[in-house]
Amino acid sequence: MRPVPWWALVSSGTAPLLLVGGWLVSASLQGPGYDPVTETISALAGGGAADSWLMAGAIGGLGACHLVTAIGLRVAGAAGRLALAAGGVASILVAFSPVPPSGGSMQHSAAAVVGYSFLAVWPVLAAYRRRAPAWGLRPMLGAMVTLVSLIGAGWFLLETWGHGEAGVAERVVTGLQALWPLVVVVSCLELEHVRHRRTAAADRA
């Protein structure tokens, strides 16, 4: 059995495409009234947004991709896989709890915070201390990615409460979180390829 099935590569690769493609297409449909620098992704899926179903579907699809990836990433630590799956479920809940036109939604905010938190900590929880692990699952790197996510949360809050460029901060940080599962999967497949080459070379020797 392969440590990472092919469909985990598909799901992890689709996740960032859905998120980035969703916010680019959705923002283009809003017209000049929407400013991606200052306004969040949630506004694209909220009440009053043009074709809000598009961004909501992208967020829901992102969550489903995280769930599938968590199932397939068998070589990662169990706690990390559970955190990734929980982040996926929270993303689906975000998609089903849009912000109303008047603004503000406890259900949406709670799901977003929970989802962000799980996706922030999953890299360090998924890391394992084995001999020659895939580089995407090394503890030091996982801790660094988690730290960057936590710093990104502070940046987003700072922009929300002060400077006003919350849209930029949110896109950078959520983009990183959407991309990291793909990085981990690719590193696992790379390690598998290296091991197969070594085994084949040993058999020929």
From TrEMBL:
| Span of the signal peptide | none
- The record lists the membrane-crossing segments as 51-71, 78-97, 109-128, 140-158, 178-194
Identify this protein by name. DUF998 domain-containing protein
Top-level division of the source organism's lineage: Bacteria
Give the matching InterPro entries: DUF998
Q: Which keywords, in A-to-Z order, does the entry hold?
A: Membrane, Transmembrane, Transmembrane helix
